[in-house]
# Entry
Amino acid sequence: MSASEIGQQLINVLSLGSTYALLALGLALVFGVMGLVNFAYGELVTITGYTMYLMTINGVPWGLAVVCGITFATIASLLMERLAFRPLRNASFLTLLFASFALSVILQNVFRATVSPRTKGIRGPGLLIESLQIGPLTISWMSIVTIVVGAAALILLTLFMRGSLAGISMRAAAENFSVARLMGIKANRVIALAFVISGLLAGVAGVLWVSRSGSVSPAMGFVPILKAFIATVIGGLGSLPGAVLGGFVLAAAEIFFIVVLPTSVQPFSDPFALLLVIAILYFKPNGLLAPVAERV
Amino acid sequence: MSEERPLLRLDGVTSGYGPIVAVRDASLEVRSGEIVALLGANGAGKSTLLMTVAGLVRPTAGNIELDGSRIDGLKPEEIVRRGVALTPEGRGIFSHLTVADNLRIGAAVRKDRAQIATDAEEMCTLFPILGERRRQLAGTLSGGEQQMLALARSLMSRPRLMLLDEPSLGLAPRIVAQIFEMLRKLPERGVTVLLVEQNVSLALDIAQRGYVMASSELQLSGTAAELRSAVDLEQVYLGSAGDAPEPAATGGR
Ligand SMILES: Nc1ncnc2c1ncn2[C@@H]1O[C@H](COP(=O)(O)OP(=O)(O)OP(=O)(O)O)[C@@H](O)[C@H]1O
Ligand SMILES: [Mg+2]
# Structure
């Protein structure tokens, strides 16, 4: 493989990895403060997609559709917390898990009934499908935008989580919720904030996702939630740096197998990537950057 | 503040975990400026009593009053705003946060930014090691340093009442002595103390009064001198663990 091919694939890894990282972070944040693996998280991506679809077919400019898509995902995330998960605040891990599965199925059926059961195409700005030639590398604008947006979101989130009292409170609550409450951190507020940020991340990742795939469908949230889940497990459930790392590792694994596998088995590159994940977990059962097992 | 009205009063408080009753019909008072010890064997219900006052465990019966107003049934985040800080058993520091961020979280209930920074400085004078380790993750501190951080973090909320759950747990005698010297001076800072300890003689050294808890009930109370002279106290209520520093943590929650 030539140097330029390697460069090309590295850009693919960065682009796919930053999307996965954003998705994984949103899932990990909520898991951290509430112990909930929110399987309805993928539906936030779908909500972003449908918002953008419905707006663009009605002539709303792309930029506005993007902003609304992200906003609706955020509001939906907050509503999930208030209506579905707050009543189950002290429920067991499994109860929460099943509740989020149920919510996911309900939302998918709502999309089927209200919009359409079929896949719909969505057209982004033409620029995104054009490419840029830098030396021997051909880089699509989609990749550049994805990498820049991903990096910006990661930097902003890091600054927020480390520099603001709200961010530090959230990290404290993720480590020990009861003690965080003893410090005066309001349980409802910190959980709501985690859902808001989770929704924002799903929205931003959703925009990238839909722009790349060019289509929306009722069950489109399944792949993003699956990737996010795998990435958080690789990185260590509950660890935010782990979620980012896991996203990039998963992307690297997928692209590696796409590159090395002969064309005839390429459809199976995903299972191969999963095998690699299992191998990682075999050696590091709690993930690469597992937080100390200390939850109250 | 009137002389008669205690800062903290429990009246017939019962609490526990679902069907388990861990505190039964407990009545006690802590007056402003006092250090009051709460003694008792493992499993007597001491931690549960403190957590009930702090709002982490809900009482099923009885009243809890802080300076005359009811606080039972309030959420922990509301109770700390009224000036009650619990330093939990096992310290409960945030190990993934820096020492400085732990202190900042301790002041989460306050809005006076400038004064918070001054107080953080003061904590680093009170416990110089915390000043040196400011930027370090709290999880990398030694047990004694973590206990100091936990105390400093509680002080950052400017409490009127501190509930201390076994601050000597698992620490070397020299560190324990240093910590207790600091605790002794808390009333001078305007902080009243309810102290849970298994190390009876240490606790009675700094406390003016005490209560003894056994099998979920407050069985005995008196001045430190009275409790000390109850010679068979340790055998009757506390087993034989009395004077020796406790062996390492019996495991938090
Ligand atoms: N989270 C919990 N769920 C159920 N039971 C509990 C819980 N925490 C404590 N208990 C029980 O309540 C009783 C009192 O426990 P508590 O921790 O208050 O005792 P303690 O006096 O603080 O003991 P120690 O000196 O060991 O810290 C014990 O029987 C204990 O098993
Ligand atoms: Mg205890």
Notes: Chain A has eleven helices and four strands. Chain A has one domain: 3-220. Chain A has a mean pLDDT of 91. Residues 3-220 of chain A form one domain.
